[in-house]
Amino acid sequence: MSKYSLVVPAYNEEKTLPLFYDAVVPLMESVGEEFEMIFVNDGSRDGTKEILRGLAEKDARVKVCNFSRNFGQQAAFLCGFSEATGDAVIAMDADLQDPPEVALEMIKKWKEGYDIVHGKRRKRKGETLFKRATASLFYRFMRKITSLDMPADVGDFKLYDRKVVDAVLSLGEHDRLLRAQAAWVGFKQTTVEFDRPERVAGETHYTLKKMIRLAESGVFPNSDYPLTLPLKAGLCLTGLSLVCFVVFIVLACSGVAFGGLTAWLFPALGLATGIVLTCHGLSNIYLSMIYSEVQNRPKYIVADKFNL
Length: 308
Hints:
The chain is an alpha/beta fold. The chain is 51% helix and 16% strand. Helix 9 runs antiparallel to helix 10 (261-295).
């Protein structure tokens, strides 16, 4: 018999938590196996802490971690992972935009042998066109500039096998995007599609600032693409400047007037800038290698062991 751990970050969710509890418990009980719910109170300023205390007092399956301040959703998930004791861990939001019934489909996929089951959103109700467009662009941008095979239109609603959770916790960097790290660790993965409903209560706490910060945590730890931009720009500018010099020399030899010495200033400046950018880009390559070493990620992850 398996045990399941539900990891649920909560930030100012006093209105949604009772609804979440009432919706999730009957569904998980229908599985007929042991489960626990680990709520991580991410420095809430409303009545979230008191509500969670009340749920924990009446149900021993409810576990609560209270942060001293708001550390962010990714930190809350990691805290829940470190406390989880289940054979499979399901990460989900408290606002019921991650439908609990989808978790049952994830469990079925896990029992079929998949180690990571992503919740893939077909529709996103209650979200602005701007948010949907930027989210779609972000996933496609990440796939292009990194070596990560990140499924498009997935968030943090996932099921992780125990060994995957251990692998994610072993990674050393401070700034994390779990959906990117889930792709990096590998293992056997699949998706379950669903239509994301609107929040059952309250308002979203995901501001534009938090979205940008999350994007930074995804791009910079997982890609050296920004570091290569000066090298690419430098090579292009150097090449264009050299072509310009060749054209000017041909024009000068042909006796064509084109502005005198002043005209030579622009390709000269372009060539000098291009050389500087190229040297800067080469330095960034070494910086990228150093950064990769500082991350201190494991060089490999063992998925299974037999007779050891």
